[in-house]
Amino acid sequence: MKAGLSKWPSLLAMHLTATLTSLLFAAPVLIVVVVSLKSTTFLEFSLSPATWTLQNYREVFNDPLVPRYVANSLFVGGAVTALTVLVDLLAAYAFAKLRFPGRDLSFGLLLATLMLPFSATLVPVYLIAARLGMVDTYAGLIIPSLAGPFGVFLLRQFIRGIPDSLLESARIDGASELRIFGSVVLPLCLQPMAVLAIFTFVGSWNSFLWPLLMAQSAEMRTLTVGIATTNTQFTQNIGGTTAVAMLSLLPMAILFVGFQRYFVRGVLAGALKA
Questions:
Q1: Which of 45, 130, 248, 255 makes a 20 to 30 Å CA pair with 266?
Q2: CATH number assigned to the domain comprising residue 98
Q3: pTM value surpassing 0.85
Q4: Range of the domain at 119
């Protein structure tokens, strides 16, 4: 009984720390929510609900470009996520289970690209995309982001934990490598694939610099670029600006709430496999 009571101070301190940390990170979001429900300027900002209104959101949805920005972000994010998971999973399987000359060297060079900032490769990638005629197209927004070394590394660490005897049994039964990949490896990698999908979609949704270069017309802009560059009434109205910001936050919140369980399980599984 005394041992149980002695743990209360430490548990209370941990819960207080967790609560204060959560409030610290949630406070800016709550302020954005409140500002988006007001028609006042920032200097007149107050937390009183007396002046709350949905007028800012009505103006956002009345703007014909905002739904197009949202649709572009959803399409580009969905395509990038699906193709990235597929390409990274294929590469991870090859690096983890197949033997070919230069495998370890190729994987080391792939990991070395993690040290390169995106700004270092931005100009050559843009020049290649421009030469291929992908500027101001969905292909230009999607294809350069189809794969990444982080995803290959994450999935490779998990696939290495799959017993080789399981794959050898499938080969003895006459299954091809593609059949083994689709019927054996793929079902076992759903959790790390969910982790990679969440990271990829969030990164694509929040991406700004590359869509800013690729989207030359207003119809091709994603939501983040549209918020920053479109000269509308929202640029002078902080309530309208924060309403658009809340609109951009909504898909991320839905994604986190809906897939939180799979995200945690996938991260833990990857850590145990590593």
A1: 248
A2: 1.10.3720.10
A3: no
A4: 78-220+260-273
